[in-house]
C-alpha cells in the first residue's frame, strides 16, 4: 500500500492510498468451503443446534400470546381461576428454554473446536508451502508481513469460523422464524414491519459498504506495521548506534497512523450500526403499538395477547438484522485475511525438475554400485532416456562456462563468468561490495537459476540434479549466523540430522568449538535461545562452522565465514578451517588477506566480471587490481 500522510482528513480516502475491493471473491469462498466440508457431521450437528436455539427465541413470543389470551385474560374475569394449564405451559416453556441453552452451548463449543482444527490445517499447509518457496520470495517480502499471515490473518479466520458464521446463520434462522410468526399473528402489522425492513436494509448496505473497504485496508496496514516492527527489532543495534530513534519513530508513526485511521473508520462505521438499528427499532415499536391498538379497537381483528406478542417479536426482529450487518464486516475482514493466506499458498513453488540424485555407493575398481549402508562414498545416479542408469562418483568438481545472470530482467549482475574448480581446490573471490561474489555461490547451490551459460557439477549440468541432493552435497557457512532454539548439540546436528553425538563432538573439535562449548554450564546440552544472544559473535560462527563440518560435504562455501571473528580467535579457527577444507572443493569469499592468500586460485571481480585470476603471488606480480587491494590495506575492501 502506498505510504500515507501522517494526518488524514476524516471521511476521505487519502490520496495515493488504494483501498482494496471489499467484495467477497468467489474463489476464496469456495476454498474456505472446501475446508468446512471436511467436517460435514459437525456442521450438520451445529446447524440442528442453531435451528433449535433460534426457534427457542421465537417460542417466547408465542408463549406470551398464549399466556395472555388463553390464561391471563380469562382468569381476570373469573372468581375461581384454574391455574393448572398455566403451570403446564410454564413448565413446557422452561423445558424449551433448557433445550435452547444446551443447543447454544453445544454449537458454540463445536464451532470453536472445528475452527481450531481448520486453522491448524491451514497453518500446516502455509508452512509446508513456505518451505517450498524460492529464496527470491523471502528477498522480496517483509518477514513481519509473512508472520502476519500466521497471526493476524489467521485470527480473523478464527473469529469468522467460530463466531461470525454461526451467529449469522442463527440470525437468519431467527429472522425467518420471526417473519413467519408475524405473518401468522397479524398480516396488517407485518406490512408495517416490511416498510421499516426496507429502510434498514438500505442503511445496512451503505454502512457495510463503507466499513468493508476500511476493514480490508486495515489488514494490509497491519501487515505493513508488523513488517516494519520486525525489521526494527532485528536492526535495533544499528538504530541505536546511529541515533536513528527519532527517525524510526517518525516512520513508525506514519505507518501506525495509516493503520489507526483505517481501523478507526472501519469500526466507526461498524459501530454506528447498533445505535442506528436500535433507534429504528424504537420507532418501529411505537408505530406497531399505535397501529395495533387502532386495529384492535376499530376492527377487533387482533387480540391483546397478539399485540403483546407482536411487540415482543418486533424487538427480537431488530437484533438479528443488527447481528448480520455487524458480522458481515467481520466476514469481509476475514476474507481479506483468507485472500492474503491463499495468495501465499498460491505462490509459485521453487521448481525442482532435476532427476539426477545422490546415492550411497560402493566402488570396486571401475564398477560403482548403489547401496543402502553407510560407506562414506557417494555417487550421482543418472537415469537416461533409454532406461539405462549411470553412476558418477561425487568428487566436488565445479565448472562454470559463459554464465550470465540477473536478479531483475535486463539488469545483468554477472557477465561471461568462466570458472573451473578441481576437486580439493580452494577458490577465493575478492572484490568490492556488489561485485557479484556471493551471487556466484548462490548459483552453485541453485538458490537462483542462470540466464545463460552452463554450470556443471562433476560433469553433470546442475539443472539436471535434484536440488535437495545438490544442496546435500554442499556445505555453507554464512557471515550472518542463524542459530535456532534448542541445545548446542541440536544446532550442530542441523547440518546432518542423523549424526551421532560422537560425530557432532568430532565436528566441533574440527572447528575448534569444543573448547568453549565444554566451558558452558551444560556443555553440548546448553540451551540456545534468542538466536544465541548469550554467545559471542565468534562463538556463534564457530558453531556454524561445526554445523557445516558435521555434514561432511565435498564442496564448501565460506561466505565471509571469519569476518565476525576477531584476529586472535581467527588464528584458532583457521587451523580448524584448514582441516575442514582439506580434500574438499572450497569457495571462499573474504575481505581478509590471511583468509585468501593460500588459495589455489584467486578471482578478482568487478562489476560482475572476472578481471583477474591466479595465485596470490601471480596476481601480485601482475600489479593489477589485486595488487592495489593488497598493498592499500590489510583487508580487502
Describe the structure concisely.
This protein has 637 residues and is an alpha/beta fold. It is built from 20 helices and 16 strands.
Q: Could you explain how this protein is built, in words?
A:
The structure is a single chain. With 637 residues, this protein is α/β, with parallel strands linked by helices. The protein folds into 3 domains: 26-345, ABC transporter transmembrane region fold (Up-down Bundle); 357-393, no CATH class; 398-632, Rossmann fold. It is built from 20 helices and 16 strands. It has helices at 26-36, 40-76, 84-132, 135-140, 143-185, 187-234, 236-241, 245-271, 273-298, 304-345, 437-444, 467-472, 488-493, 501-510, 514-518, 537-551, 567-581, 593-596, 616-622, 625-632; strands spanning 357-364, 367-370, 378-383, 389-393, 398-405, 414-421, 426-431, 452-457, 460-461, 474-477, 486-487, 527-528, 555-559, 585-589, 601-606, 609-614. It has a 6-stranded mixed beta sheet with strand order 10-13-14-7-15-16, sandwiched between helices. A 4-stranded antiparallel beta sheet has the order 2-1-3-4. It has a 4-stranded antiparallel beta sheet with strand order 6-5-8-9, covered by helices on one side. A hairpin with a 5-residue loop joins strand 3 and strand 4 (389-393). The longest helix is centred in the first third of the chain and has 49 residues, at 84-132. The chain is elongated and about 125 Å long. Mean pLDDT is 80; it is low at 1-23 and 633-637.
List the helices and strands and how they pair.
Layout: H1 26-36, H2 40-76, H3 84-132, H4 135-140, H5 143-185, H6 187-234, H7 236-241, H8 245-271, H9 273-298, H10 304-345, E1 357-364, E2 367-370, E3 378-383, E4 389-393, E5 398-405, E6 414-421, E7 426-431, H11 437-444, E8 452-457, E9 460-461, H12 467-472, E10 474-477, E11 486-487, H13 488-493, H14 501-510, H15 514-518, E12 527-528, H16 537-551, E13 555-559, H17 567-581, E14 585-589, H18 593-596, E15 601-606, E16 609-614, H19 616-622, H20 625-632
Parallel strand pairs: 7-14, 7-15, 10-13, 13-14
Antiparallel strand pairs: 1-2, 1-3, 3-4, 5-6, 5-8, 8-9, 11-12, 15-16
Helix pairs in contact: 2-3, 2-5, 2-10, 3-5, 3-10, 5-6, 5-10, 6-8, 6-9, 6-10, 9-10, 14-16, 16-17
